[in-house]
Write a structure and sequence with these properties.
This protein is mainly alpha-helical and 159 residues long. Helices cover 76% and strands 0% of the residues.
């Protein structure tokens, strides 16, 4: 019996792609938010935690920063898992990572701003405009989507 080229990737490679892509995207995005909005890390963490607690986050103890950061990383680990697992079914996602990664980043932006934020404790579609919109969309494309796709391609393979 001849070996086929269609062997499933090792589970450890799939997990490593999810963790590597998710952690890199979350870290890059966190720093991008600090640059775009000109605030400290605690400000970004508070803004994320506001999705859970609403305006009450302003009067909460500093542990709320940990909740915000943990939430941010959890969201992007789930996003990375979605991309990597989908790429097992549709290898073109990895084969064309330089295209599909940025497109995935746009999808993440749309889901966050059109579904997640309106359903959160923020209850608003506080979509940025002008230069901030451009910065956020490009950020999602190149500091979230692209790293996730490249980690998937590097660790799971192009096939």
């Amino acid at each position: 019996m001849a070996a086929t080229s269609e062997t499933a990737p090792a589970p450890r490679h799939v997990l490593a792609a999810i963790l590597g892509g998710g952690f890199m995207a979350a870290t890059f995005d966190f720093f991008a938010a600090m640059l775009i909005y000109g605030g400290p890390a605690s400000g970004v963490a508070h803004a994320i935690a506001r999705g859970w607690f609403g305006a009450a986050v302003k009067t909460m103890p500093p542990i709320v920063d940990v909740i915000g950061i943990a939430s941010h990383y959890a969201i992007l680990l789930v996003a990375a898992a979605i991309f990597v697992l989908a790429s097992l079914r549709f290898p073109i996602l990895r084969q064309r990572a330089w295209i599909t990664g940025p497109l995935f980043g746009v999808c993440i932006y749309l889901v966050m701003h059109l579904i997640v934020l309106p359903l959160s404790a923020v209850h608003a579609m506080n979509n940025p405009k002008g230069l901030q919109l451009v910065e956020e969309v490009l950020g999602h494309m190149f500091v979230i989507g692209l790293p996730v796709a490249l980690w998937a391609r590097a660790l799971v393979g192009r096939d």
